[in-house]
Amino acid sequence: MITLVHFQTCLSEFAEKFDKLASKYDHTIQHSSELEAVINDYSRFVTDQENKAAWEQLEQSELEELDSLVGELRNKSALCVAIMEKYRALKLENGDVQIADYFKNIEECIDKEFGSFHVTSESSVLLVGSGSFPMTPLLIAKRTGAKVVGIDIDEESITLGQKVVETLGAGLKIRLESTLLEDLDYTREATHIIFSSTVAPKYELLDQLHALTNAQVVVAMRYGDQIKSLFNYPMREADSSKWKLVDQILRPDDVFDIALYQKA
User: Fold this and answer.
1) Under 8 Å CB-to-CB from 20, ≥6 apart: which residues?
2) The pTM is what?
3) Torsion of CA 183, 194, 224, 262, to 10 degrees
C-alpha cells in the first residue's frame, strides 16, 4: 500500500514542479512542453486507481496532515492549468493544433456533460472561468447552436480566448468578456451556468447568483472530491434555502465530477 510518506513526497515534488514552471511563463511558448508533461503526469496521478485506493485507505487523521499541501497544490495546479491554456492559445496562433493529453481528457468530459445539461439551440449558456482556450463554449456552440458567453477575470485569458474563437468558432454565437457576474446583464438571461473546476470561490459565487438569475436556471459545478481534490476545488454544501442539488455525475476516470443545482 502507498504510505502517507510516499504520498507526501509525490505531492511535494509536484508542488515544486508547478512553482518552477509557473514562474517561467513569459507570454511565449518557450516552456510549454515542460508544463504539459507535468500536467499530464499529475492528471494521470489523480485518476490512477491505485492512488485512489491508497487515498481512501489513509486514515482521516493522516489526511489532515496533508491539508496545507493539498490546498497549496489546488492553487498551484489551477494556475498552471490556466498557463497551459495560454500556451495552447499561443500555439494555435502559430498554426500548432496538437492537443495535450490533459486537454483530450477535458474535451471527453465536456462531451459527457451534454446529456445532463439538456442544452439546445434555444439555450443561453454562461461559463464562469472560460480561460484562454475556451473549449466548453466552442463545443457547446458547435454541437447545439446555443448562445454562449464566457467570463474570466484574467484579461490576458480573454484576449487570447477571443483569438481562439475567431480561429475555431467563426460564425458561432460565442462572446467572451473580462467582467464580474454582477456586472453582466446576460446573467439573468442565462438558462445554464457552468463553473470551471479551477474557480476557487464557486460556492460564494453560487450564493451571489441566486439574486442575479432567473427561476429556471440550471447551475453545473465542476469539482473534485477525495483524491480529485488535489486537482480541483472540492464540493461543499450549498445554502439549502437558495439551492437544491438535483444531480451528481461521478466519473471515476475523469479529472472532475459535476454537481447540478436548481433554485430551491
Assistant:
1) none
2) 0.90
3) 100
Task: Write the burial class of residue 32 (CB in 10 Å: 0-12 exposed, 13-18 middle, 19+ buried).
Answer: buried
Q: 196-254, pLDDT tens digit by residue? A: 988 999 999 999 999 999 999 999 999 998 899 999 999 988 999 999 999 888 887 78
For residue 202, the one-letter residue type is K
DSSP 129-187: S--SS-HHHHHHHHHH--EEEEE-S-HHHHHHHHHHHHHH-TTS-EEEE---GGG-THH
- Using an 8 Å Cβ cutoff, are 129 and 157 in contact? no
pLDDT at 106 over 70: no
How far, in Å, CA of 231 to CA of 42, rounded?
Answer: 8
Residue predicted with more confidence, 111 or 206: 206
Distance separating alpha carbons of residues 179 and 169, to the nearest angstrom: 21
CA atoms within 13 A on the CB side of 115: 6
How is residue 191 annotated by DSSP? S
